[in-house]
Amino acid sequence: MSGAVEAKLTELGLTLPAVVPPLAAYQPAVQSGPYVYTSGQLPMVEGKLPVTGKVGAEVTPEEAKGLAATCALNALAAVKSIAGDLDRIARVVKVVGFVASASDFTGQPAVVNGASELLGAVLGDKGVHARSAVGVAVLPLDAPVEVEIQVELVQG
User: For residues 58 and 42, what is the distance between their CA atoms, to the nearest angstrom?
Assistant: First the structure.
């Protein structure tokens, strides 16, 4: 199934990837009532991390911002696996971004903007959300960024 949201992705030159398989004992996304919660999504592209390391050291903030957008795209794929159609998204409620940061790096909000801006570009007003951007010491597989989202679905 594809609709207006996937048409917008195509217009932006983006392709919705396959759902990234879990790395451990969890599901990529679950639904509770009208809400879909994704697990943390790494910036996997065709099963691999394009870059590893800490932001502010091995990874530039600009690279990390692009990786955060990839995480958001992977999160949308996880949402679709539950919702069946991205047009069922009533709104993105919350985004949480984790940035593996060099000890003196404080630009986490600008990095997580990559995810927020992608969601806004794809979903318009439905992509406006509450958010946290958190610096952490290390992420799975030495990923620079991890993003999880919570969306509300239109019922029916």
Answer: 17
State pLDDT tens for residues 79-116.
999 999 999 999 999 999 999 999 999 999 999 999 99
Amino acid of residue 61:
P
Cα(93)–Cα(71) distance, integer angstroms? 16
- CB within 8 A of 24, min separation 6: which ones? none
Match 């091995």 to its residue by tokens: 58
The CA-atom distances, in angstroms, between 48 and each of 26, 134, 137 are 19, 23, 21
Q: In angstroms, how far is the first alpha carbon of the chain from the final one?
A: 16
129's tokens:
């959300």
Using alpha carbons only, what angle is made at residue 118 by residues 113 and 119, rounded to the nearest 5 degrees?
A: 100
Nearest Cα residue to 123 out of 11, 24, 39:
11
Give the integer Cα–Cα distance in Å for 67 and 98: 12
Which region holds residue 56: left if phi is over 0, alpha if psi is between -120 and 50, else beta?
left
